[in-house]
Write a sequence for this structure.
C-alpha cells in the first residue's frame, strides 16, 4: 500500500500542467501578451522576422518559464502595425460642418480665380492683336544673288586655307 501512495506522489510530481500562453480571446479583446506565433500572425509577418527584431533589440520581449517569448502587444505594434483584414469594419467618416463650409468657400474662390484667369487671357490676346496691327506689314526678303557672280573666280590662297585643305586631305587619305 505504501508503494501505491509513493507511486501516486510520483505521478503528481511528474504531472505537467499546461497553461495557455495567451488568455482566450473574446471578440474584441486583445491578448495580454503575444508569443512569437501570435505576434507574427497579428502583423502578417514571419516568426523569424519577429525573433530577429527581438534579438536586435527593436522589440522588447521576455522569456516565460517554458523558454518561450512573451511580447507586449502595445510594444510589438509600436514597431509592426496591426494587420488590417478585409472584413474589419472601418468607422464611418465623420462630416464636420466647418470642413464642409471651408470646402464650399474654397470652391467658390477657385471659380472666381478661373474667371479672372479667363479675363486676363482675353485681355492679353487683345493687346497682342493691337500690337500686331501697329507693326508694318512684312517686306518680302530680297533674293540673294548667286555667290559666283559677286565673288572672284578664285580666292587667293592663304595660309589658313592651305592648312585646312591639307588637314582635310590627310583625314581622307588616312
Amino acid at each position: 500500500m505504501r508503494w501505491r501512495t509513493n507511486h501516486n506522489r510520483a505521478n503528481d510530481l511528474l504531472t505537467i500542467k499546461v497553461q495557455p500562453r495567451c488568455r482566450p480571446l473574446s471578440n474584441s479583446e486583445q491578448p495580454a501578451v503575444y508569443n512569437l506565433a501570435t505576434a507574427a500572425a497579428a502583423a502578417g509577418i514571419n516568426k523569424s522576422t519577429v525573433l530577429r527584431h527581438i534579438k536586435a533589440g527593436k522589440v522588447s520581449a521576455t522569456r516565460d518559464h517554458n523558454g518561450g517569448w512573451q511580447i507586449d502587444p502595445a510594444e510589438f505594434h509600436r514597431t509592426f502595425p496591426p494587420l488590417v483584414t478585409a472584413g474589419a469594419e472601418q468607422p464611418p467618416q465623420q462630416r464636420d460642418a466647418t470642413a464642409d463650409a471651408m470646402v464650399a468657400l474654397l470652391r467658390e474662390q477657385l471659380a472666381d480665380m478661373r474667371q479672372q484667369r479667363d479675363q486676363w487671357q482675353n485681355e492679353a490676346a487683345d493687346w497682342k492683336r493691337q500690337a500686331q496691327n501697329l507693326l508694318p506689314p512684312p517686306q518680302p526678303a530680297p533674293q540673294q544673288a548667286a555667290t559666283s557672280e559677286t565673288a572672284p573666280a578664285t580666292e587667293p590662297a592663304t595660309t589658313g586655307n592651305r592648312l585646312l585643305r591639307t588637314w582635310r586631305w590627310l583625314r581622307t587619305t588616312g
Observations:
- The mean pLDDT is 77.
- The longest strand covers residues 61-63.
- Residues 7 and 13 are 10 Å apart (CA to CA).
